[in-house]
């Protein structure tokens, strides 16, 4: 059994700088890419940023220069530092991990439960 548990988020003022965390736990052999996605009301889920297990990062154009993704491979945790938040960043943020569970030969995608980030004054 593998779980992704997110924390952080909530109601943030424009220009705020919250940090999201997502910890993977359970029967894990190897974690490959970890990332953050978001889904705003009435819109499709979109990639915000992801990071490989060697530290290569990738960002959506809309967050480049404002958000920073990082990870702690010992703690199996990925972080998203969000700066200069705008109202259009309001969404449910989901953690994603591509990993191989113990005893499995394939790589699977796992998702967190999502955490709401609302940017409003």
Verbal overview:
With 121 residues, the protein is mostly beta strands. The strands form 2 sheets. Strands 2, 4, 5, 6, 9, 10 and 11 form a 7-stranded mixed sheet that branches. It has a 4-stranded antiparallel sheet with strand order 1-3-8-7, with no helix packed on it. β4 and β5 form a beta hairpin. It is elongated. The N and C termini lie far apart (40 Å).
Task: Please provide a brief summary of the model.
It is built from no helices and 11 strands. The chain has 121 residues and is mainly beta.
Q: How would you classify the helix and strand content by structural class?
A: mainly beta
Radius of gyration, in Å, reads 14 Å
List low-confidence stretches: none
Kindly state the mean pLDDT as a whole number?
A: 97
- Count of runs of 4 or more consecutive helical residues: 0
Q: How would you characterize the largest beta sheet?
A: 7 strands, mixed
- What coarse outline follows from CA principal-axis ratios? elongated
**Approximate strand percentage:** over 45%
Secondary-structure element order, N to C: EEEEEEEEEEE
Helix content: under 10%
Head-to-tail CA distance between termini:
40 Å
Beta-strand segment tally: 11
SSE layout:
Elements: E1 2-7, E2 10-12, E3 19-26, E4 28-39, E5 46-51, E6 57-59, E7 67-72, E8 77-82, E9 91-101, E10 108-111, E11 115-119
Parallel strand pairs: 2-11
Antiparallel strand pairs: 1-3, 3-8, 4-5, 4-9, 5-6, 7-8, 9-10, 9-11
């Amino acid at each position: 059994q593998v779980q992704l548990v997110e924390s952080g988020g909530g109601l943030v003022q424009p220009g705020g700088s919250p940090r999201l965390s997502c910890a993977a736990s359970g029967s894990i052999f190897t974690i490959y890419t970890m990332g953050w996605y978001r889904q705003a009301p009435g819109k499709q889920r979109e990639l915000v940023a992801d990071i490989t297990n060697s530290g290569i990062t990738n960002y959506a154009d809309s967050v480049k220069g404002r958000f920073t993704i990082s990870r702690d491979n010992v703690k199996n945790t990925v972080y998203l530092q969000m700066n200069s938040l705008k109202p259009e960043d309001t969404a449910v943020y989901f953690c994603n991990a591509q990993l191989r569970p113990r005893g499995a030969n394939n790589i699977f995608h796992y998702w967190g439960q999502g955490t709401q980030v609302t940017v409003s004054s």
